[in-house]
Write a structure and sequence with these properties.
- Pfam families: DUF1285_C, DUF1285_N.
- This protein is α+β, with helices and mostly antiparallel strands.
- The protein has a 6-stranded mixed β-sheet with strand order 3-2-1-6-5-4. The protein has a 6-stranded mixed β-sheet with strand order 9-8-7-12-11-10.
- The N and C termini lie far apart (37 Å).
């Protein structure tokens, strides 16, 4: 693993670049940015959605939100990117947690722990991994980034479930049916 000090990689530099991009409104266009790899940053997103930097939880929600806007996935690796640098970070499971859902009759809109909102649809499917004993539900947020649906929200989805065309229980959102069973 490259040492971050050898590459002048810092969380502060990434945060400054992300902040500058955020001032322009909306999410930064990370899908258009392909800067050179500058090494790995000692940053991790734990399975419970907590972000750590150098072994310490990042306690400022605004800073976590800022970093989340410049998160990019390439294959099975995660990076924080700016127009001029790309640094690797570790992600234990999914980078986000879906902490709530607005369950309407024709759509389900999720809210994540970093403030993203997404309606389950063909581009933002609900995916069930794991097994029958321990299903692990996710929703696609953007560009290969998913949110693990937390337990209370999954229970609410299950309470609203109906039988699907293949006999599995699931929910409908934006004209799509999403099975909640494996």
């Amino acid at each position: 693993m490259p040492d971050q000090s050898d590459n002048n990689v810092s969380a502060e530099g990434i945060a400054a670049a992300a902040s500058k991009a955020a001032r322009k409104g909306g999410l930064p266009p990370v899908h258009l940015w392909n800067p050179p790899f500058c090494g790995d940053l000692d940053m991790e997103i734990r399975a419970d959605g907590t972000w750590f930097y150098e072994g310490t939880p990042i306690g400022r929600p605004a800073m976590v939100r800022l970093f989340s806007t410049v998160l990019k996935r390439e294959d099975d690796r995660f990076f924080l990117v700016t127009p001029v640098e790309k640094v690797g970070i570790r992600v234990e499971d999914a980078p986000f947690i879906a902490i709530d859902a607005d369950i309407a009759s024709d759509r389900i809109t999720f809210t994540t722990n970093v403030g993203d909102e997404v309606t389950a649809d063909a581009d933002h499917p609900i995916i069930i991994r794991g097994d029958k004993a321990e299903p692990r539900p996710y929703v696609h947020i953007r560009a290969g980034l998913e949110a693990l649906i937390d337990r209370k929200t999954f229970y609410r989805l299950a309470a609203a479930a109906e039988d699907g065309p293949d006999g599995r229980a699931g929910i409908r959102s934006d004209g799509q049916f999403f099975a909640l069973e494996i």
